[in-house]
Amino acid sequence: MMKPKALVLPRESMLKQVCSEECKQLIESAFNPVWNDKGCDLTEEELSELVEDAEIILTSWGSPILTDAMLEKAVKLRAIGHAAGTVKKRMPREVFDKGVRVYSAANRIAQSVGEHCLAVLLTIMKRLPAFNAEIRQHNWKATGQKGRELAGSTVGIVSASSTARAFLKLLAPFKVNVLLYDPYLSEEAADKLHVRRASLEEVMSCPVISIHAPALPATEQMITRDLIALIPDGAYLVNSSRGAVFDEEALIEELGTGRFAAALDVFVKEPIRQDHPFLQMSNVLLTPHIAGASIEGHLALMYAVVQDMLAGFAGQPTSYEVTERMWETMA
After folding, report:
1. Of 53, 203, 239, 275, which sits with the fewest C-beta atoms within 10 Å of its C-beta?
2. Tens digits of per-residue pLDDT, 109-141?
3. How many Cβ atoms from other residues are within 10 Å of residue 116's Cβ?
């Protein structure tokens, strides 16, 4: 039997980051691949010619956008695998009308984000940046302050997204009590996650808070000034979702008081401007939107979607497939 033609669109520099040697071998064995060896992105005209007899298209960051016109020509197309996060801006929703199956590595990236959230949370709870700064100034236990323990804490989580679920798995050994706000989460699903459904007000009143909301019109500035004011003194806040979910001006004002600590990976405007108030706050740990970036995580992305795609073709359950029903609530 002839193997299906697969277009592997990422340029070589990106492919090295998201496709391991094991993944390349899997692609070669399962498909008849056409690799993008140009060293740059294919033009729309070049891609339009190639898609006509393609059954599989594999993409990642920087790959060409798949337009309606291209998909009209791709009469044999069975599946698209995106070795990156959201697929919403990579292709039109109408792809589902053509019976094309869509796969995204977002859930694999979520594993890296979960690790990041746990790492930065423990970092600010244990006051590691402050202790590091003190000892470099030859101040040995100068302040007499102590860190806090995560074990047994009450943790508030906003959104039951894939990153939140990855974070929850890592929190399990700490035996925390989790309150979770997500309007789409059923009681049954909450029970399976071992969390209690709660209002946004309850979650923002927790001593530990982690934000995992997707970037949607409905989530823009959903954490209002009034909600930020509910954050308790001495609390710890982690945001690895999007800066725009907060009223950032209100967040700047509250963090400026020093009454709680935060670990922020995302901001309304990125890169963060050089005079941003966050840069002057010792109670804020800053990272440059890298929560999902890890060497091992990125290298596993294409393998994850290809393996899942093959499972789908074989009639087996999938873990990375994106359905039309998921479209409205995903980032």
Report:
1. 275
2. 999 999 999 999 999 999 999 999 999 999 998
3. 24
